[in-house]
Amino acid sequence: MWSYFHTVYFCPIFSTRHLMPFNRQPMNDIADLNNLESQISFTYQNCQADHAYKSHSHNYAHLVLIDEGIAEVKTNGQHLIAPRDNAIWVPQQTEHSCATKNVNQMCILKVSPSVQGLPDHPCVKAIPPLLKAVINHFIASGITEIWNASQLRLSEVLIEQLIQAPLMRTYLPTSCDRYLQPIIEHLNRYPGDEASLDDWAEKLFTTERTLARRFKKELNLTFSEWRQRCRFIHALDRLKRDPISIQQLAFDVGYTSPSAFIAMFRKYAGMTPEQYAKLWR
Fold first, then answer.
1. Which of 7, 74, 201, 242 places its Cα 20 to 30 Å from the Cα of 177?
2. What's the CA gap between 261 and 119, in Å, rounded?
3. Could you give the angle at which helices 223-241 and 180-189 cross, rounded to 10 degrees?
4. Given this model, what pLDDT does residue 168 score?
5. Residue that finishes a domain, picked among 105, 139, 168
């Protein structure tokens, strides 16, 4: 996600030098400090090893941001997974556990309970370019608290963009739509199925255009994007559980060559399948 942190929200912008303590500005540079009502703050953590945090809750809502690897949050029977370029939203007073795999830097964006318009349930948030750039600015500057009017104005942009950011209850959204549901259920069972959207349209007695439109409207993803995420999630699960060859796994989730599968996996996880598997051995 730090591809936000590089330029941050899930990327290499997040380097150790960005984690230096933020130097407060002289008082004469601070505009009406007593009138500042900041609704956000940041904390940073170096993750030199994989981390797991036992079930806990906070009196503030927060967004879990990582530079690479994978963040996982379990709460209320939900298992939320966020590779880089996505983030996990956790409302205040929500009991949850958290784990990170192959993450170098983690940032927690704390949001005041007074902010209205954000989800009241845990979910995955996609991070659009503008939101990514604003977050990246705060992280690159090592800012933990809002200290001047300029930062306050930027924090207001961040909050506005965070409210508008696409929401996914899970990294792999689902739908009860009469056309989409059979496709989703089938691919969740058989992620290696290579049927095209046109093939599905023929099976469901509709058109490819109709299905494409419904995928985008209902899931905020194209068919190919959704299927790729489905394959990625299945690959994660198999690598955790099974001593399977990468070639066989690639074939099982619909790839004709291991190199194409590895490229997809690295895109989402920021590491190779072999590296991910070693985390669980």
1. 74
2. 34
3. 30
4. 65
5. 168
Same structural domain, 163 and 220: no
CB 4 within 8 A of CB 137: no
Report the alpha-carbon distance of residue 78 to residue 75 in Å, rounded: 5
For residue 83, the model assigns a pLDDT of 76
Look up the domain containing 65 and give its range.
3-168
Site of tokens 């966020």: 82
Closest listed residue to residue 5, CA positions, set 114, 120, 122, 103: 103
Q: Is 173 within a domain?
A: no
The size of the chain, in residues, is 281
Chain centroid to CA 72:
9
159 and 184 fall within a common domain: no
**What is the block-wise mean pLDDT of the chain (281 residues), using blocks of 10 residues?**
37 32 36 58 80 87 86 81 84 91 84 92 85 91 90 94 78 86 92 95 96 93 92 85 88 93 85 80 62
